[in-house]
## 1
Amino acid sequence: MFRLEKRPTPSTFWSWGTPVLAVILTMIAGGMLFAMLGKDPVLAIKAIFWEPLFGANASYFRPQLLVKAGPLILIAIGLSLGFRAAVWNIGAEGQYIMGALCGGSVALAAYPAESFLLFPAMIIAGAIGGFIWAMIPALLKIRFGTNEILVSLMLVYVAENILSTLAFGPLKNPEGFGFPGSRNLQQYPSAHNADLIANTGLHWGVVTAFLAVIGAYILLNRHILGFQISVAGQAPRAARFAGVNPNTLVAICLGISGALAGLAGIFEVAGPGGQITDSFNVGYGFTAIIVAFLGRLHPVGILLAGLLMALTYIGGEMAQLSLSLPLAAIQAFQGMLLFFLLALDLLTNFRIRIGGLI
Amino acid sequence: MTGKTLQEQETGRTAPREGRREMTRDVLLTIEGLSKSYPGVKANDDVSFQIGEGEVHALLGENGAGKSTLVKMIYGLVKPDEGRMTFRREEYTPSEPREARGLGVAMVFQHFSLFDALNVAENVALGMDNPPPMGELAGRIREVSEGYGLPLDPERLVGDLSAGERQRVEIIRCLLQDPKLLIMDEPTSVLTPQEVNILFGTLRQLAAEGTSILYISHKLEEIKALCDEATILRRGKVVGTCTPRDSTAREMAEMMVGAELNAPQRAPINPGPVALQVRNLSVPAPSAFGTSLREIGFEVRQGEVLGIGGVAGNGQDELLLALSGEVKTPRDCVQINGLDVGDLGPNERRKAGLCTAPEERLGHAAVPDLSLMENALLSGAVRKQLTKNGFIDWAGTRRFAEEVVKTFDVRTPGIGTAARALSGGNLQKFVLGREIMQEPEVIIVNQPTWGVDAAAAAFIRQALLNRAAKGAAVVVISQDIDEIMEIADRFAALNEGRLSAPVPTQGLTIDEIGLMLGGAHGMHEAEVHHVQA
């Protein structure tokens, strides 16, 4: 008989070992899934993890890695602060959309004027858009005690509807021959979030994501606010004892994660995305939740997890093309990663013993 | 009822009594060489003793001596690694509590398992394997409760009962199953002295009727008053047996602790100006089953120790929260050195000179998974100036934590150890040390020695007295009357959220304290008479 025994202190080894083990188990279970679909599992796994980095077309895919990882990391860093404090912002996707809409609207309103001030203004507007969207669940929670999980999640669908209304209405490209979607910001020099070094995928959003990693690392390890965030998540009563106002903390955590998601949105729409369309969002806000947990809510872990997740995105697309794997299989594969990670998390706080009663 | 059966009953009742005097009573439970190990600790090591029928047997030991593990094995909650037990001369290996109950072993736990939102009869029914219909059950509860001098209304909501009444629910639940052996785990820790008397009356009556009682405690006077035999455990081993009536409390204590005990020393006090003033403090209950504070007022002078006694659940937690600043009050309700701080949070009050140590060590006074170093920062950041512009001075925090560990003799592998890995006594020394070493001008502690072994408790009390000697005003909220009598200059009782006027502890008798603790409960006195009658 198996039984679990609580460890006196959390295991450092397993705290970092479980993500690695989860990736390995995902490869095994995913391989079985692909085999059942009649595909060669080794080829499929290789297509996902190997080809984008070292395959024949790697020079095209490597920049994509940063393009995809940038927003994931940026959003996940914000979410991780809240998750550490037990403030569950599930609606980053909505904040991401609102950031893109606000920042994009600034650019479209200014069109075709050229100014070096436009890009900073768009970025600020994007951050504010995400921030305000996140403050809705924050204020409702503080004032009425509503559950931020539900409210933030529901607001994603509200944001999606606002997005399609605007994309087909006020923000539609007047010179777009009736096609849905806004003007392409890539063709508007003052607003374009171009690669800083050509063909590397390194745009301002990626830089901001790296800065967020460093900032979060300093906040969590050196600053009293980061300490209070950790305490509030682990022991709310102890946090009050330490003088933390739980309401302030809810507002700070939701505010930061909303603003970072909004930034990710505007960097995306002004750069790789280019256009505000009703489907420009591809679920970064949701995937970032996986990234945050996969990275152990630790800034450096999130950096690595974001790159890994981006890899499965790109590799997944590759596998869809080269092996004609269905998209659902790729999504199931990504879901497995979170599943195994959460299941294995047990090992951090418990050890498994075999045999014997209590 | 015929004369013959009556006679049988009477002989049945008196036989154990006779047996007790001649020491030839039948053996009910035998324990031989019981051992149980947990990772890193041998909780019980070759424990053997016997309990006779109708005997009140004490199991005596400090916290962590292995008493709980032992009774859990008897009650079928834990399986022994080695050794055997016989119950009424038959092999006894209960695999679960249900089996133990079926054979006639019942247990009243230290922490009650009752549902506040259900009434007494419903709670009793939930704990029975085959509950009778509600109406019948209520009748039997009345019958048993009156028969044993434990008045209890089956219709009342458990949430409205005092701790002593809740314990009665648990006892009556056991008695309804007609047990042969009743295990009581630290039953008096939540009772007033008068309630203790009532309980002892019941237990003596049960023993006289032939029920054996295994009584777990570390309170020596109680054991002397109640028990026939005592087995003393230390670090999982039986270190002695004695007949409590013929032993002194000191002898038993020294067997229990394995060392000589020193009573705390205190210098004569010379109270200075008022350091903490509380006026007209009223706070609504935080939850449906919490306690409201009502018009609490007191003052403590520099160098003075005020003891606040009371049975748990009478507003101790709420009072601490209101004083620490975790719950805010009108501005002039709390004054530190003449400064109004009622509307300030914990850190502002720390700045003004007030430190507190809450009762719940893990989760309130300390974060379980964080290291001692991080826990030192938790409340020490302000007074020890461990942050600069919001950035943490980890080197300073490390020094502070190491200082606390060293000065307060906290046994830990290092300050990187998680708080939850420390024993209760060691963590309490750390928590108290952390507050005292911030040199507060006012220090308020709630249950400072709860669940702490005797040596650590003595150390903690001495540390509080030393702080008072250096001119701090000290408030000790405690359920342990002996503790308050030992260190406090003045005593006040907290009852249903009201605080009695403080009186000097010198010359106060246990009976007077009991009446103060009973406070508005006029009924306690009536019950005492009922039992004595």
## 2
Amino acid sequence: MANYNLKINGKSHTVDVDDDTPLLWVLRDNLGLVGTKFSCGIAQCGACTVHINGNATFSCLTPVSSIGNAEVLTIEGLSEEGDHPVQKAWAEVDVAQCGYCQAGQIMTAVALLKSNPNPNMEEIDNAMNRNICRCGTYHKIREAVALAAKTK
Amino acid sequence: MTTLTKASRRDFLKIAGSSVGGLVIGFSWFSCDSPKMEVLSTEEILSQAKSFNSYLSISPSGDVVIYSPNPELGQNIKTSFPMVVAEELDADWEKVRVLQANLDTEKYDRQLTGGSGAMPHSWERLRKAGATAKFVLVAAAAKAWNVNASEITVEKGIISHKGSGKSGHFGEFVAEAATMTAPEEVTLKDKKDFKIIGTSVKNVDSKEMYTGKPMYGLDFYREGMLHAMIQRAPFGMKIKAVDDSAARGVSGVKDVVTFGTSVAVVGESTWPLLKAKKLLRIDYEPDGAVESTADHDRIFADLMLNGKPDVKRKDGNFDAAFKGAAQVVTAEYQCPFIAHSPMEPENFFAHVKGDKVELIGPTQTPDRARQATAQLLGIPLENITVEITRLGGGFGRRLRADYVEEAVEVSRAMNAPVKVTWSREDELTGGAYRPAVRYRFEAGLDASGNMIAYKLRGVGMNAGNCTRENNFPSGAVANVLIESIEHKSSITTNAWRAPITNFLAYAEQSFLDEVALAAGKDPVQFRLDLLQQAKTSPVGGELGYDVDRMIGVVKAAAEKSNWGKDPNVKQGFSVYYSHRSYVAQVADIAMEGGTPVLKKVTAVTDCGMVVNPIGANHQVRGGIVDGMGHAMYGNLTFENGVPKQKNFDSYRLIRMKEVPEIDTHFLDTGFDPTGLGEPALPPTGGAIANAIFSATGRRLRSQPFIEQKEFSDIKLEIRRA
């Protein structure tokens, strides 16, 4: 066990956990930030996607000891009221069915639009291919990313 | 206006005042065939009365709150059901709120999510609840204004009387309305006057979902709660010895608990448990059949030849007709075990306190969770409460209570509140799968290419009746024999979205294409000819489907997909009836530089009236993506009672780049709405397999397609417009 000082959503948090604890479980079990989801645990599905220094990252395989001073952004830190352009696009397009994967989808989309503000459809497909949606909302995810790119 | 037949006052409604001066109406949301309604006291209603599982309340400020008792797992009834109530009430949708009600401990008729049955069961009751509330509000306004109720109009929660110029919102009349008696008859709207039903209303939980609020079972935490993860025995095995010393050595592990064939590691957070579970050293020994996929192959082959079938349907004399046929077609189809893989792994919270239990988590059947717990602990049902969270998918997996029982076991052993969490590996190896099934089809044609004999023999692993004997083409063929054989496997199975038909439809629709080819007929015309036969001179007894409605979707899908019009597009057709709805699909493949490219799936659905188009589209597209993904990739193979595929790296789910354009259409046939959570899935595998055959000449008789030798040199690409 060791103390880690983490910068998450613009705030500083200190947690006392084992070095190998994945960021996912620090967020969920230690900090109560449960918007970041557990699903596969092996970086295959994207439900646990957060940003580390702006890059979409699978938090399920990111040990807390590797984070250092990096800025972590989770779905909870994206906006106060759910009015980030990507969140608004998601609501406008009415993307979700069960909704469980959508926080991860949104975080992937936000990172994409940050690095590529005007992606074409193929670029959207390529970026979003790392996130699985078991309900099959892919058409709507695609539509929402395109809308967010247009309206941001 | 449609007037309902006289309903008993005991039928379902109770009106009462609320403590804050509002109006409360209790009604039974899910009553099935025999509504059990009682007249209750105001106190009973307000204390979450026993007979009613739903409440509609209108506050003095005019806010409408509907308590939804049903588990929400993405089928969107938490949005569509209140739409139905609000429609008859003529409420302002902006002022309607929906809250999740918990399972009370008595007398619930149908509080489950499964079988696409919620909407057909609830449609009339929801309408009556809304219409009754409106009736008493109007009566209260008429009394206050001293005018005739028939002259009053209601729009968006505003009650108006044109003659006197008076108007007011619902809330102004709730106190008076609460003193009234529910009418014996209520008048429902004519469907053409609907203002909310038939419009696209967005998900009521959008904001919570997109901001990461705790909603799902896995998001539930409580001070002092312990976490548990569980190692389960391979199928057919039991525990011989457990060495938990290494697991106990992981910092953060509090205890290791063995019960039945399971070993639980318990601690204060999840990560140490994920590590500790891998360090458990458990010796197992056989406790029944320890099966591998090779064993299943042998069992299937043997039972297909020598099994004693359960005859499900027999029309005419199949054997004689088949022997005398001018031409025969036979084929075998097979599908593997697959898992449900909801994105939220199974989990549940339990707190056993003496002979009382508190349960919180994601379940499609809160009732079953409670019953299983009562049985396990030998306590009365009323000692158990169940709080339902949102479900991160279900697909049938959460109809089981196995993971609820685990939470109860560990909570009892630890004498503490416990949340059991499954890893993805647990979910893929933990059983309750879609059963593996094989089918053998035999068809006989007369000299003119008419199908005069049809036989289906199905062999399933714990699949129960793996046929749907009264479905098409039964009724359309003079000599039919439908047989089912079940093998009791040690691999556990469960309902999986569109049980049985999720595979049977593909096999049957692909086989019918084989028969059409032998008969020299166009696949669509071949089906229409059969349906015409079923319409004009139906064969045998009961038919499960409405012939006209099936003809309707077949014709519409052919039209919407430009069936057979473009020689550069190779198409595959499929139609299926399940869960009271009809869906026909056409898959389009274009050959581009020698590579077949799956471009589009066109779907025509007859689910009666569409309540919420945006939600209906979701269900149809999601069903097609699901059907396609599992037909293409889904496969669990076993080695000594353990699946080889343990996570999404080896168990492949469909992804963004693998879905084609999907073009959805709905037929308005004037029928009341039927379910949509499942019916779009069954036809998809057949439409795609038939299109692949049309484009490449390769017939895919096994799933998953991607692993078949017929598919090995096909480079199917998927491209969207």
